């Protein structure tokens, strides 16, 4: 019954979305307030019905209602509760429902907090947002309906892919979707502004918090996914340049660019048409991502069981929205005259450079991801483009970005002197050069990776610190530091996070140690400075799996460090084995142990890694997200959000 | 019951245990050769997997390829010779780092070309913004602004 109600609610939400697309758009065109006002209650009702529908599906999973086809295919009565819930979005149909839930969530949020928006713009934004909803409601109802029943329900389900039964991955998709779909808000604002024919500082200020929110979620989502890969896949890789990872990374790069260019729109009324284009492209890449994950066009470790026919529908949706928006852009972009004037050396120029590097690096990822398809269709060559390509082609852009970042972030607006700005950063430069030199001298092999990573990391982090320090003025520094706008803190924290992540990736890649061997019971062996001994191997069973668990005692010079229990699991229902690495997390390194097969001559295969600075990768991502949050909580946005008083003036330049 | 459970489990474990990526029995005696083999393995695709290299893959085919790489290196092949040998057998698809041959130059040049193009466009934009008549206050009033000014003065 609840399932049918959920189905019905979904259809209702679809209908409401159609109304919300058409009525306010006409209303805004004809200036009919009544028609425009339809958008707000419609957006909220659409969200409520979608939420109910999603709740109904979750209920079916929680109660293991195997008469629902989707539950049978993706759940099992013995599965722990957390994974019953996360199973709701661990499959194609459910995840699309989550997708559209978030589309309507953002629409509802804009209707509630968009009080300061001019009525026509607001009506158009909500209408465009609803049109995205219409496309995906239709897609779900006509091709991927999650509420279908089975005539003869089985006694038990077929279980969720065991790799997905993990806390990290349970929350990875919701965050990722909040990010992907959050960009739809920037898209709606961009298209609404194009229809309106007007982009000004106020537009830049309205679109920024939405982009920032999407970017924060995307950052957390990507970090969770990469952390999951790190501990779950069994060799401690954290980024594979897999098509699906790239699909989430491209919107991240573009939304980062969009965040920065929207600042220029807000403060200086320049870069308008470029910012609009970025907003369209950022969401366009989210759609491409959805298409890649679900069409089976590219093979990937993460892909859903996919279906080319659905892929075609998503391709059509993508073509409609991206193509339509770009056509509108081509027609209207000329109307957006830039106002600000600035010299070649200025904050504006630095932000242009930021956008250039982020956009081109995104382009590189895009070309690399799609090249196998292009090569096969156009040149009849079946080839692969894998991690080695991206590792060669992508980092140069990040190095350039990292070198520019601290300089750009302290350059004054409008007009600046390059030498003077560099002089302000002299301590940061000296510190990072000294650190890089020290590491270069200390490390055994003469690889550049470690020193360059340290140089960039230290340069960005100390540059961000100096930026804050100098902003605080000369006297009474500490009190002033605390009173700085949260946006300033957010900027420095997020930049520092980026520095930490760059350093950690370089450090981990350059200085990791690996040991592969057959470990016999109670025969100690050395890995780096640690003495390890496999003391026991136990067989056992969990709620829905069998396990072989090794017990490894780790000591260092006689001092106990940790007892690690690496596991090998077999999920009988899904017919799938997994490895569960045991990791001793420390501040400066992870000790990562994986147990393998029993050997014929006794003993077990064991792999041990010492991974320096592993935690810092995700620590840096967290800092980036935290910086975004600080910035989002800045007074500027809070005031702009609710208050009707604020007129459509630009923010005062700081 | 317990015996049955154990029997079932033993069968399951035997039939579907994942062989871990590189096995200890594959590792070469010579650390230099082994290092080279690992490097090469990271650039070779496991053909039956989804986008994994053979160094990380658990599949049997990946193991065969790893052994083949080591065999070639022990036989005295250079890195390039060993790679060519494998590409001859398995096709270009096996290379994770595509060559620059044929149309692939486009793939490799796409980034740098786009960078140059974007730089040119950005520089043109910046020039336009920086010479657009100096600061806005230096520019005279536009026609509409003059008309508006007149309107205000006349009031």
UniProtKB/TrEMBL annotation, chain A:
Source organism of the structure: Tritonibacter scottomollicae
Gene Ontology BP annotations: cytochrome complex assembly
Family statement: Belongs to the CcmF/CycK/Ccl1/NrfE/CcsA family.
Membrane association type: Multi-pass membrane protein
Alphabetic keyword roster: Cell inner membrane, Cell membrane, Cytochrome c-type biogenesis, Membrane, Transmembrane, Transmembrane helix
Cytochrome c assembly protein domain boundaries: 89-296
Record carries keyword Membrane: yes
Role, per record: Required for the biogenesis of c-type cytochromes. Possible subunit of a heme lyase.
Any single Gene Ontology cellular-component annotation: plasma membrane
Residue ranges constituting the Cytochrome c-type biogenesis protein CcmF C-terminal domain according to the UniProt record: 315-635
Gene Ontology terms, MF aspect: heme binding; heme transmembrane transporter activity
Record-given protein name: Cytochrome c-type biogenesis protein CcmF
Annotated transmembrane regions: 6-26, 47-64, 96-113, 125-144, 175-195, 207-229, 249-265, 274-292, 312-330, 351-374, 394-413, 425-442, 448-469, 489-511, 613-632
Location of the protein in the cell: Cell inner membrane
TrEMBL record, chain B:
CDD domains xrefs: CcmH_N
Domain of life per record: Bacteria
Biased composition (Basic and acidic residues): 136-155
InterPro entries reported in the protein's UniProt record: C-type_cytochrome_biogenesis (IPR051263), CcmH/CycL/Ccl2/NrfF_N (IPR005616), CcmH/CycL/NrfF/Ccl2_sf (IPR038297)
Transmembrane segments annotated in the record for this chain: 105-126
GO biological process: cytochrome complex assembly
GO cellular component: plasma membrane
Gene3D superfamilies to which the protein is assigned, alphabetical: Cytochrome C biogenesis protein (1.10.8.640)
Residue numbers spanned by region Disordered: 134-155
Signal peptide span: 1-21
Annotated CcmH/CycL/Ccl2/NrfF N-terminal domain residues: 10-153
GO molecular function: metal ion binding
Keywords: Cytochrome c-type biogenesis, Heme, Iron, Membrane, Metal-binding, Signal, Transmembrane, Transmembrane helix
Known function: Possible subunit of a heme lyase.
Protein family per UniProt: Belongs to the CcmH/CycL/Ccl2/NrfF family.
UniProt protein name: Cytochrome c-type biogenesis protein
Protein source organism: Tritonibacter scottomollicae (Epibacterium scottomollicae)
């Amino acid at each position: 019954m609840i399932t049918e109600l959920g189905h019905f609610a979904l259809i209702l939400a679809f209908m409401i979305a159609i109304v919300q697309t058409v009525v306010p758009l006409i209303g805004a065109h004809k200036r009919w307030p009544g028609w425009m006002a339809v958008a707000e209650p419609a957006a909220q009702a659409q969200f409520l019905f979608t939420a109910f529908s999603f709740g109904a599906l979750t209920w079916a999973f929680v109660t293991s209602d195997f008469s629902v086809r989707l539950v049978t295919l993706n759940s099992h009565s013995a599965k722990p509760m957390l994974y019953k819930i996360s199973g709701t979005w661990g499959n194609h149909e459910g995840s699309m429902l989550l997708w559209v839930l978030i589309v309507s969530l953002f629409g509802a949020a804009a209707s509630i907090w968009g009080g300061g928006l001019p009525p026509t713009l607001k009506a158009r934004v909500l209408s465009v947002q609803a049109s995205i909803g219409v496309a995906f409601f239709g897609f779900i109802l006509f091709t991927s309906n999650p509420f279908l029943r089975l005539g003869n329900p089985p006694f038990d389900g077929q279980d969720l892919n065991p790799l997905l039964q993990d806390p990290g991955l349970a929350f990875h998709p919701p965050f990722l979707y909040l990010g992907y779909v959050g960009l739809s808000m920037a898209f709606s604002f961009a298209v609404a502004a194009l229809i309106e024919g007007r982009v000004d500082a106020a537009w830049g200020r309205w679109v920024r918090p939405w982009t920032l929110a999407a970017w924060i979620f995307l950052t957390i989502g990507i970090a969770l996914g990469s952390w999951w890969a790190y501990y779950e896949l069994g060799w401690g890789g954290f980024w594979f340049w897999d098509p699906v990872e790239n699909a989430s990374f491209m919107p991240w790069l573009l939304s980062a660019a969009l965040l920065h260019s929207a600042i220029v729109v807000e403060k200086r009324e320049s870069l308008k048409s470029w910012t609009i284009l970025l907003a369209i492209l950022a969401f366009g890449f989210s759609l491409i991502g959805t298409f890649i994950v679900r069409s089976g066009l590219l093979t990937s470790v993460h892909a859903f069981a996919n279906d080319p026919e659905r892929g075609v529908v998503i391709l059509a949706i993508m073509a409609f929205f991206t193509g339509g928006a770009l056509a509108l852009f081509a027609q209207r972009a000329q109307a957006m005259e830039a106002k600000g004037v600035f010299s070649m050396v200025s904050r504006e120029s630095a932000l242009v450079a930021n956008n250039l590097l982020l956009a081109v690096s995104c382009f590189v990822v895009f070309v690399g991801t799609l090249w196998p398809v292009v090569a096969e269709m156009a040149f009849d060559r079946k080839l692969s483009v894998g991690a080695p390509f991206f590792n060669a082609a992508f980092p140069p852009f990040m190095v350039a970005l990292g070198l520019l970042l601290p300089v750009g972030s302290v350059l004054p607006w409008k007009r600046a002197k390059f030498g003077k700005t560099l002089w302000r950063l002299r301590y940061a430069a000296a510190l990072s050069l000294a650190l890089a030199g020290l590491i270069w001298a200390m490390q055994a092999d003469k690889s550049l990776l470690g020193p360059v990573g340290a140089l960039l990391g230290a340069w960005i982090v100390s540059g961000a610190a100096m930026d804050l320090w100098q902003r605080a003025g000369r006297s009474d520094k500490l009190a002033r530091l605390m009173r700085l706008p949260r946006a300033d803190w957010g900027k420095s924290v997020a930049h520092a996070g980026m520095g930490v992540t760059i350093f950690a990736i370089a450090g981990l890649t350059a200085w990791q140690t690996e040991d592969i061997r057959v470990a016999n019971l109670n025969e100690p062996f050395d890995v780096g400075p640690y003495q390890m001994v496999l003391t026991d191997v136990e067989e056992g069973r969990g709620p829905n799996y069998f396990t072989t668990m090794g017990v490894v005692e780790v000591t260092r010079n006689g001092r106990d460090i940790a007892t690690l229990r690496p596991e090998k699991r077999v999920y009988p229902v899904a017919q799938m084995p997994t490895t569960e690495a045991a990791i001793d997390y420390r501040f400066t390194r992870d000790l990562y142990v994986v147990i393998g097969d029993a050997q014929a001559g006794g003993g077990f295969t064991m792999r041990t890694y010492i991974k320096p600075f592993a935690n810092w990768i995700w620590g840096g991502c967290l800092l980036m997200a935290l910086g975004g949050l600080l910035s989002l909580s800045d007074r500027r946005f809070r005031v702009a959000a609710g208050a009707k008083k604020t007129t459509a003036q630009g923010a005062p330049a700081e | 019951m317990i015996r049955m459970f154990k029997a079932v489990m033993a069968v399951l474990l035997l039939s579907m245990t994942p062989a871990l990526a590189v096995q200890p029995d594959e590792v070469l005696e010579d650390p230099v050769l082994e290092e080279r083999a690992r490097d090469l393995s990271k650039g070779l695709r496991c053909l039956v997997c989804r986008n994994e290299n053979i160094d990380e893959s658990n599949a049997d085919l990946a193991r065969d390829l790893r052994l083949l790489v080591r065999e070639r290196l022990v036989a005295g092949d250079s890195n390039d010779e060993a790679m060519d040998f494998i590409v001859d057998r398995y096709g270009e698809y096996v290379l994770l780092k595509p060559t620059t041959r044929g149309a692939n130059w486009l793939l490799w040049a796409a980034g740098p070309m786009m960078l140059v193009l974007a730089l040119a466009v950005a520089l043109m934009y910046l020039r336009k913004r920086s010479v657009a008549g100096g600061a806005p206050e230096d520019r005279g009033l536009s026609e509409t602004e003059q008309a508006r000014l007149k309107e205000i003065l006349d009031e």
